[in-house]
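Field reference: sequence -> structure
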Amino acid sequence: MSLSIVFAGGGRMRRLNKQYLNHDYVTDVLAFDLGGHAGEVIVCPSMASSNAKIYGVCIEDEIVLYVVHGILHLAGYDDHKPQDIKQMRLMEQRVLRAF
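Structure field:
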């Protein structure tokens, strides 16, 4: 699989979130399956900075979490229903513990 990781500002993240998901707000991470075993994870560092302060973690750890989250989306995990969110969080922790 080919994976691109892109960092984008809040304005771009909001536009992409609106264009592709019809959500009119800045989001922390977006993942796109580009087909042919290729994917792209787009991370918003300004959201990572804000959330790192809220959760008391360093920005680097928050960004790694976003990348893992995006990759899990590309692998087929979802986070819309409570049970899906629980499974996503479990998988995030499993992957992060491997580092």
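Note: Residues 59-74 form the longest helix (16 residues).
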